[in-house]
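R.M. (postdoc): so does anyone remember the format we settled on? I'll just put the structure tokens first.
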């Protein structure tokens, strides 16, 4: 009596005595199992799982993940709308920390144990925890897209908390220390110190302020932009990371003779030859020229030595 004809897939016995399973995939190609099986029953069960995947619409092309991570990650960065500074950061992380380890490995071959081992190697080699966390976060983001692209089924980055940057709490200057620093710095930078100390603005938000952002009538500063310093020395103007209050306004500290530098800075010209220094779009805080202050060169060594 003839056996029942198989309705899905094929199983054949190889000269080695093991069994090979094959099936016609949704793309019309005959797809063999990645490995052979010891028994015919094992091969049948593998085919049954594949048939279930296809019925559920959960079938993945086994060749889709055969793309080197370095190639896929480079395209991932290029396809995203990123600020110039973020793009530089991602490219640096890829070049220095991910490409040497994962660059030549196919996306589908990156496993959780492989990720854990390589991360541990980085930390053991002395790479800073913050850098490792940022690199891991980028790796996880790239591979999350690979899951969405149906190149892999699951993201192999499964280390809980590995992408969290643990920054120790920084000491906070007291009110008196802020005043002392403002008194010791050059007068042209007094407003900068007071605004940084009492308004809590980031460096990029401070140097991005224009005169029109200073609302003297309502005692507030409007944060409209931030200046980011790039690795090549260029500057990028971008939106601030946060919006202060619903209106984007940040109130002045309580007025006193010691904080009057903020308001006086907005009503008088800076002591330099700049015909546009009083224009609404002129920089509120700048260096010896009309360009924004550079974080890497301010204050100078002489200025730092004179500070309390």
């Amino acid at each position: 009596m003839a056996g029942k004809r198989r309705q899905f897939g094929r199983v054949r016995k190889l000269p080695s005595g093991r069994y090979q399973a094959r099936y016609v995939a949704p793309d019309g190609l005959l797809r063999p199992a990645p490995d052979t099986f010891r028994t015919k029953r094992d091969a049948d069960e593998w085919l049954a799982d594949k048939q279930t995947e296809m019925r559920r619409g959960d079938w993945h092309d086994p060749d889709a993940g055969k793309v080197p991570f370095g190639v896929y990650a480079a395209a991932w960065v290029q396809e995203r709308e990123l600020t110039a500074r973020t793009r530089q950061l991602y490219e640096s992380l890829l070049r220095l920390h991910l490409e040497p380890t994962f660059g030549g490995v196919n996306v589908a071959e990156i496993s959780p144990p492989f990720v854990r081992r390589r991360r541990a190697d980085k930390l053991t080699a002395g790479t800073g925890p913050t850098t490792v966390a940022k690199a891991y976060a980028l790796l996880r983001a790239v591979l999350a897209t690979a899951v969405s692209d149906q190149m892999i089924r699951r993201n192999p980055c499964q280390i809980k908390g590995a992408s969290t940057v643990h920054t120790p709490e920084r000491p906070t200057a007291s009110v008196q220390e802020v005043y002392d620093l403002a008194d010791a710095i050059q007068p042209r930078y007094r407003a900068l110190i007071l605004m940084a100390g009492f308004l809590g603005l980031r460096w990029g938000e401070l140097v991005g302020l224009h005169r029109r952002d200073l609302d003297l009538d309502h005692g507030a500063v409007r944060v409209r932009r931030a200046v980011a310093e790039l690795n090549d020395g260029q500057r990028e103007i971008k939106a601030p990371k946060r919006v202060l209050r619903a209106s984007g306004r940040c109130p002045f500290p309580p007025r006193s003779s010691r904080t009057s530098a903020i308001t006086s800075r907005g009503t008088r010209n800076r002591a330099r030859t700049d015909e546009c220094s009083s224009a609404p779009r002129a920089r509120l805080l700048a260096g010896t020229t009309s360009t924004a202050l550079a974080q890497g060169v301010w204050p100078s060594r002489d200025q730092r030595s004179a500070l309390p």
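R.M.: ...and that's the designed sequence above, right after the tokens. Also worth knowing: The chain has ten helices and eight strands. Residues 175-305 form one domain.
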